[in-house]
């Protein structure tokens, strides 16, 4: 192999290559755009300069034993800088366990406002109006991040531009390595597509293979350089609903449904028997005595009955509360409550308000 140091750097030799009109136009546009951004950068002074720069550096990488696939796995610098503002290092098994209860939790725009709006701005800076090629390039930059991570195996985006002014379509396939992290990423992608202005029309998911496929449809928001917060937020919620709806939840563990039900104050827990009630109250008592204080015991007990929607606490410091009307009418359940509290304190009543002394 001839070392480069023995070769002349003067560019006098000509090389003719054949390529497609699409690639020729792509290179011409790429050089033109980057020359406008960096007019003093020699690489973009001409198409010839750019070709020479690419060929010389690619040959050096090949001689070092690197391949095109190695380059595809490298994370784009802009993408790295963007995500590093919002990421932290975590132990995957612990994080995998910690996020499990949030599986069917809605994606909060308010909590993620800064991140999502910066994502939208990043998209605007990289993609020109009605140019699906720019979208593919933008996605490849994002893909470079996931390709270098140890939480995903692969992801692929296919785009089908619409004809005769019809909206474009696409599909995203994403394969993960960890069950809960993969599901959270599915929610994340659905939310991001909503912010960008892309509608999710279908969601295919395999829990065993950690595989998902999002079917996508362009909306008028995609190339609109306006915030349109209300419309984008509506699309975000609709997209995420494809991931976390009850049709999917009911096939999953019982606890996810119970977590949803617990949020509704119009519902309450009814014990099938006194033995069931005693089993649970004894378990709670044991932890209160082991980890709490005697002074807080009645306070915590009232919180328990409040959380199963038997009572509504009026003033926790004064240990005052009202019994929910449905429990007032349920003689058996009310008696369980009164009998239990009477073991530890005196109960006084004034109209519908109860006090523990």
Features:
357 residues, alpha+beta, four-stranded antiparallel β-sheet, 15 helices, 8 strands
Shape: elongated
- H/E order of the elements? HHHHHHHEEHEEHHHHHEEHHEE
- What proportion of the residues is helical, as a percent range? 40-55%
What would you call the quaternary organization?
Answer: single chain
Compute the number of strand runs.
8
Strand content: 5-15%
Gap between N and C termini: 94 Å
Rounded mean pLDDT is 86
Radius of gyration based on Cα positions: 30 Å
Main sheet overview? 4 strands, antiparallel
Question: How many domains?
Answer: 3
Spans of 5+ residues with little confidence (pLDDT < 50)?
A: none
The number of distinct helices, counting runs of at least 4 residues, comes to 15
Please state the structural category.
alpha+beta
Strand sequence of the main sheet, in spatial order?
Answer: 1-2-4-3
Describe this structure in words.
Helix content is 50%, strand content 14%. By secondary structure, it is α+β, with helices and mostly antiparallel strands. It folds into three domains: 19-66, no CATH class; 77-249, no CATH class; 274-356, no CATH class. The protein has a four-stranded antiparallel sheet with strand order 1-2-4-3. Strands 5-6-8-7 form a four-stranded antiparallel sheet. α8 (179-196) packs antiparallel against α9. The mean pLDDT is 86.
């Amino acid at each position: 192999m001839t070392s480069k140091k023995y070769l002349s750097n003067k560019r006098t030799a000509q090389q003719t290559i054949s390529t497609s009109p699409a690639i020729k136009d792509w290179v011409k546009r790429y050089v033109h755009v980057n020359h406008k951004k960096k007019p003093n950068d020699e690489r973009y002074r001409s198409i010839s300069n750019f070709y020479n720069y690419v060929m010389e550096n690619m040959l050096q990488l090949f001689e070092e034993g690197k391949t095109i696939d190695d380059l595809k796995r490298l994370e784009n610098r802009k993408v790295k800088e963007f995500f590093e503002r919002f990421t932290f290092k975590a132990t995957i098994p612990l994080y995998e366990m910690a996020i499990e209860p949030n599986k069917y939790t809605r994606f909060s725009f308010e909590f993620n406002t800064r991140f999502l709006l910066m994502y939208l701005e990043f998209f605007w800076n990289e993609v020109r109006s009605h140019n699906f090629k720019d979208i593919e390039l933008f996605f490849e930059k994002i893909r470079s991040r996931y390709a270098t991570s140890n939480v995903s195996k692969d992801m692929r985006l296919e785009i089908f531009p619409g004809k005769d002014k019809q909206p474009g379509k696409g599909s995203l396939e994403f394969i993960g390595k960890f069950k809960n992290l993969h599901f959270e990423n599915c929610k994340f992608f659905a939310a991001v597509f909503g912010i960008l202005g892309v509608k999710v029309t279908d969601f295919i998911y395999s829990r065993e293979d950690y595989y998902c496929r999002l079917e996508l449809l362009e909306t008028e928001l995609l190339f609109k350089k306006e915030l349109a917060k209300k419309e984008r937020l509506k699309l975000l919620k609709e997209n995420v609903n494809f991931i976390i709806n009850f049709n999917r939840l009911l096939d999953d563990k019982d606890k996810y449904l119970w977590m949803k039900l617990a949020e509704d104050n119009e519902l309450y827990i009814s014990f099938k028997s006194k033995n069931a009630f005693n089993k649970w109250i004894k378990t709670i008592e044991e932890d209160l005595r082991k980890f709490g204080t005697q002074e807080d015991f009645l306070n915590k007990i009232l919180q328990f009955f409040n959380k199963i929607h038997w009572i509504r606490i009026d003033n926790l410091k004064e240990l005052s509360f009202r019994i929910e009307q449905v429990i007032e009418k349920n003689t058996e359940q009310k008696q369980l409550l009164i009998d239990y509290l009477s073991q530890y304190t005196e109960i006084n009543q004034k109209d519908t308000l109860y006090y523990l002394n």
